[in-house]
Design goal:
With about 150 residues, the protein is of the alpha+beta class. Helix content is about 30%, strand content about 35%. The chain is built from four helices and seven strands. Strands 1, 2, 3, 4, 5, 6 and 7 form a seven-stranded antiparallel β-sheet that branches. A hairpin with a 2-residue loop joins strand 3 and strand 4 (about 70-80). Helix 1 runs antiparallel to helix 4. The longest helix is centred in the C-terminal third of the chain and has 21 residues, at about 110-130. The protein is elongated.
């Protein structure tokens, strides 16, 4: 039973972290500075970024710094490649041409999904706590007669 708890907890945490955000279409033509964005590159954009981001970059998650005419100045967080692998970045600065972008979306918190996953994780934590005797009548001294006292 103990061997099953750790993978379950890790799995629930991973689902919670992934479920907290969603990409939504832009409602305006411009993106405010400081916004988290998700860019899907066109085939031409993937080819153009080969020299700076490497082979097969198709999706970029980043923080928008500013728009400079026909390009976007970004701080990168993650790049997803055509083979499905993801590469994490630590806010390195890159400039991407608008001509190479097939889709540009905002990355926003998903309140409903986060709340649901929070409830599921809390329920799981309570269940694990009860199973290992951290709460309720499963404790070492459930109440009642404490037994004989010290003998003098």
């Amino acid at each position: 039973m103990r061997a099953m708890r750790r993978p379950l907890a890790i799995g629930l945490l991973a689902v919670h972290l992934a479920g907290c955000f969603r990409a939504v279409p832009l409602e305006t033509a411009s993106v405010p500075g400081g916004s988290r964005v998700v860019l899907t590159l066109s085939p031409a954009g993937t080819a153009a970024m080969r020299g700076t981001l490497g082979e097969g970059a198709v999706t970029i998650e980043a923080t928008m710094m500013r728009e400079s005419g026909d390009s976007l100045d970004l701080l990168l967080h993650r790049v997803i490649r055509t083979n499905g692998t993801a590469e994490l970045y630590r806010g390195e600065s890159y400039t991407v041409s608008r001509q190479g972008i097939a889709q540009l979306q905002l990355r926003k918190p998903d309140v409903a999904r986060s709340a649901l996953l929070g409830v599921i994780i809390a329920g799981g934590a309570i269940g694990v706590g009860r199973a290992i005797g951290l709460t309720g009548s499963n404790s070492l001294n459930p109440g009642g007669d404490p037994g004989p006292g010290p003998i003098n």
